[in-house]
């Protein structure tokens, strides 16, 4: 996992201990730096301390980040104080549902469990595992950019963004995907986006209309069309009837139309 955190120093240390060497922690010095990290790094989960920078200003800053990256899972992490409780309550009313309290439920095992259960993290890893043989056959820069788009689709508006992240021309990006047996970059980004939609619908508390809005689909109908393309059924049926491993397998089949899959 790639975790971005804008928290006090004590909590940074506890996050590092929980993540170990298998995961990467990007520390944001302030909220402007946090926005920069989300724009340039493949962040899976954003951890925020609402007491950084002052209670009121931080709540507004966190809400601004959520508005800019609506599909990014957010975890609140702070000490148990009256100002923190008030900020937790306000952010909870605004839709942030996961909170961790220092010295209460932030053991390394518990912190890692909370981070890994955020919508989309495990599913993105599972899809990338299916795509790995194809990604290994293309240049490292393109493979890294595609992996970033799968992990964090909200950071990429369109194919030119993926090309820019890879440092190649748009035509080169398409050519490398074709050579590897991958679907087009546009379809890869669409697949990553619908995977995040499925994760939010299945593991989050969002309704279908709210999920479509958060992921910037033009309508719930548009998101339903993407679900049908990805797994052959509607958004509601995908949430209720399609297990995660089956969804990933069907989506991988869409994204590897000609390559040999393990």
Describe the structure.
With 262 residues, this protein is an alpha/beta fold. The chain folds into 2 domains: 2-116, Response regulator (Rossmann fold); 121-255, Homeodomain-like (Arc Repressor Mutant, subunit A, Orthogonal Bundle). 60% of the residues lie in helices and 8% in strands. The chain contains 14 helices and 5 strands. Strands 2-1-3-4-5 form a 5-stranded parallel β-sheet, with helices on both faces. Helix 1 links the parallel strand 1 (2-6) and strand 2 (24-27). Helix 6 runs antiparallel to helix 7, helix 7 packs parallel to helix 10 (185-203) and helix 10 (185-203) packs antiparallel against helix 14. The relative contact order is 0.10.
| Assigned CATH architecture of the largest domain | Orthogonal Bundle
Quickly name the level 1 CATH class of the largest domain. Answer: Mainly Alpha
Overall shape: globular
Order of helices and strands: EHEHEHEHEHHHHHHHHHH
The CATH homologous superfamily of the largest domain: Homeodomain-like
Average pLDDT for all residues: 88
CATH-defined topology of the largest domain: Arc Repressor Mutant, subunit A
Rg result = 18 Å
Number of strands: 5
* Residues in helices, as a percent range: 55-70%
**Poorly predicted segments:** none
In the residues, how many domains can be counted?
Answer: 2
Distance between the termini: 23 Å
Task: Please list the strands of the largest sheet in the order they lie side by side.
Answer: 2-1-3-4-5
Main beta-sheet strand count, sense and barrel state: 5 strands, parallel
Please tally the helical runs, counting DSSP H or I stretches of 4 or more residues: 14
| Range of strand content | 5-15%
> Which secondary-structure class do the elements indicate?
alpha/beta
């Amino acid at each position: 996992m790639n975790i971005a955190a804008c928290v006090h120093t004590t909590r940074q240390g506890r996050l590092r201990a929980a993540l170990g060497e298998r995961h990467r922690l990007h520390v944001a010095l302030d909220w402007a730096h946090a926005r920069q990290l989300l724009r340039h790094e493949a962040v899976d989960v954003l951890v925020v301390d609402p007491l950084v920078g002052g209670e009121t200003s931080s709540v507004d800053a966190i809400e601004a980040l959520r508005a800019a990256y609506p599909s990014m899972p957010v975890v609140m992490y702070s000490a148990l104080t009256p100002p923190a409780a008030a900020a937790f309550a306000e952010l909870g009313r605004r839709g942030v549902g996961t909170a961790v309290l220092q010295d209460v439920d932030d053991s390394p095992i518990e912190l890692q469990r909370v981070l890994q259960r955020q919508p989309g993290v495990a599913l993105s890893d599972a899809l990338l595992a299916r795509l790995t043989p194809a990604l290994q056959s293309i240049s490292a820069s393109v493979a890294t950019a595609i992996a970033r788009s799968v992990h964090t689709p909200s950071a990429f508006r369109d194919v030119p963004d993926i090309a820019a992240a890879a440092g190649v021309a748009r035509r080169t990006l398409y050519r490398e995907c074709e050579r590897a047996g991958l679907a087009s970059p546009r379809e890869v980004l669409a697949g990553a986006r619908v995977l995040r939609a499925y994760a939010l619908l299945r593991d989050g508390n969002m309704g279908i209309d709210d999920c479509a809005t958060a992921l910037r689909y033009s309508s719930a109908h548009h998101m339903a069309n993407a679900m049908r393309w990805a797994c052959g059924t509607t958004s509601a049926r995908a949430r209720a009837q399609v297990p995660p491993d089956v969804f990933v397998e069907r989506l991988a089949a869409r994204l590897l139309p000609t390559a040999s899959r393990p």
